[in-house]
Amino acid sequence: MDTRTHASTCESNVYDKSISDICPYMYVHVFVIGIVNDQFYQLQARKDAARPDYVVRAITMYCVNVQKLFSQLSLCIDQNAEVNFHQVSLLARQLQTRSSGIGAEHVRLACAEILRACDEQNKE
């Protein structure tokens, strides 16, 4: 088997499995400690034979999108600049919405804290 065929087969095998199949302990642990919530497991349930890579693609798109939002937030909260609380609030709401949709509970909770700080005009 050449390397390309093997890589393709490995990718296919990963897409055909759910996270609970790959690492059942981690699957439960991330829920118990609050990293993810029920929405994450509902996302897992949407995977079917017609779209075996649905979950992987959804998580990948989430990561790409939130990386951009985190970068924008970092620029807005630069320690040397005046904080634009309105802009930070808008970005935090976008991040919170995306995180809620995929079940990223820790990120969602962090966004709630950022929004609270924006309401209080608290840079710290």
UniProtKB/TrEMBL annotation:
<protein>
    <recommendedName>
        <fullName>Histidine-containing phosphotransfer protein</fullName>
    </recommendedName>
</protein>
<dbReference type="InterPro" id="IPR045871">
    <property type="entry name" value="AHP1-5/YPD1"/>
</dbReference>
<dbReference type="GO" id="GO:0043424">
    <property type="term" value="F:protein histidine kinase binding"/>
</dbReference>
<dbReference type="GO" id="GO:0009927">
    <property type="term" value="F:histidine phosphotransfer kinase activity"/>
</dbReference>
<dbReference type="InterPro" id="IPR036641">
    <property type="entry name" value="HPT_dom_sf"/>
</dbReference>
<comment type="function">
    <text>Functions as a two-component phosphorelay mediators between cytokinin sensor histidine kinases and response regulators (B-type ARRs). Plays an important role in propagating cytokinin signal transduction.</text>
</comment>
<dbReference type="GO" id="GO:0005634">
    <property type="term" value="C:nucleus"/>
</dbReference>
<dbReference type="GO" id="GO:0005829">
    <property type="term" value="C:cytosol"/>
</dbReference>
<dbReference type="GO" id="GO:0000160">
    <property type="term" value="P:phosphorelay signal transduction system"/>
</dbReference>
<keyword id="KW-0932">Cytokinin signaling pathway</keyword>
<dbReference type="GO" id="GO:0009736">
    <property type="term" value="P:cytokinin-activated signaling pathway"/>
</dbReference>
<keyword id="KW-0902">Two-component regulatory system</keyword>
